[in-house]
Amino acid sequence: MSSGNPKTMVILISGRGSNMEALLKSRLPGKIAAVISNRPDAKGLQTARGQGVETAVIDHRAHPTREAFDAALAQAVDRYSPDLVVLAGFMRILTDRFVARYSGRLLNIHPSLLPAFPGLDTHARAIESGVTIHGCTVHFVTPSLDHGPIVIQAAVPVLPGDTEDALAARVLSHEHRIYPQAVRWFLEDRLRIAGERVRVKGARAGVGVLYAPEPDQ
Ligand code: GRF
Questions:
Q1: Which fold has domain 110-217?
Q2: What residues does CATH 3.40.50.170 cover in the chain?
Q3: What are the tens digits of pLDDT across the range 80-119?
Q4: For ligand 1, is residue 109 a contact (CB within 6 Å)?
Q5: Residue 31: helix, strand or coil by DSSP?
Q6: How far apart are CA 60 and CA 67, in angstroms?
Q7: pLDDT at residue 3, as a whole number
Q8: pLDDT (0 to 100) of residue 47
Q9: Which of 33, 66, 85, 121 would staple 8 via disulfide (CB 3.0–4.6 Å)?
Q10: Which tens digit of pLDDT belongs to each residue from 152-192?
């Protein structure tokens, strides 16, 4: 972590890797040192290799316990001495020890407006529950699952007749916008965590209101 040099990051994935791809395409002011997957068949690994990014696999099935897997993962991550570790569709619950090791430099994206709908199947649960506004959240990772200081959120309407896939696609397009933005802020050293809150230096406050459905007037 030497000052003056561009910051480096490692991205952890488990599957498709579309958020990782959005990060790769974003010309961020830092270096993506490696993409690491817990699944050898993760599609995102090919995408990363195709873009000349180093990849590694730490297969969780090869480790008898969560602790053993996380220790191997940390060892793989630390090989790159990253300033930032980015979870991009990384589908493993991490041990407190792993989270503590990267405290303040571990980001996650979650497909809901946290603290609503932590965990899995967020889009189906949003439709089921009748909310009319849904979205996505980038947050610093803390030991409690899908919690932690929020960096940025994006909201979208839930439309009448929405299927889970339609809603997921609407949310995903905004994930691809907010994750590169959050990572850029981190790399530019503009994020300050104070308790549960994150201050973004120099960011404009959001203005405007999303209504769903639209009021008549
Ligand atoms: C995204 O919806 C992300 O929010 C969630 O898992 C999904 C991963 O998609 N954590 P991708 O692998 O980035 O395409």
A1: Rossmann fold (3.40.50)
A2: 1-102, 110-217
A3: 999 999 999 999 999 999 999 999 999 999 999 999 999 9
A4: yes
A5: strand
A6: 10
A7: 53
A8: 98
A9: 33
A10: 999 999 999 999 999 999 999 999 999 999 999 999 999 99
Distance CA 53, CA 139 (A): 25
110 is catalytic: yes
d(C-alpha 93, C-alpha 150), whole Å: 19
What are the Cα distances from residue 23, in Å, to 29, 32, 35, 180?
Answer: 11, 9, 11, 5
How many Å lie between the centroid of ligand 1 and the Cα of residue 88? 6
CA distances to 39, 55, 71, 118 from 42, in Å: 5, 11, 21, 23
The answer, yes or no, to whether any atom of ligand 1 lies below 6 A from the CB of 19, is yes
Joined together, the tokens standing for residue 62 give 């090869």
Q: What CATH number does the domain located at 1-102 have?
A: 3.40.50.170
The model's pTM is: 0.96
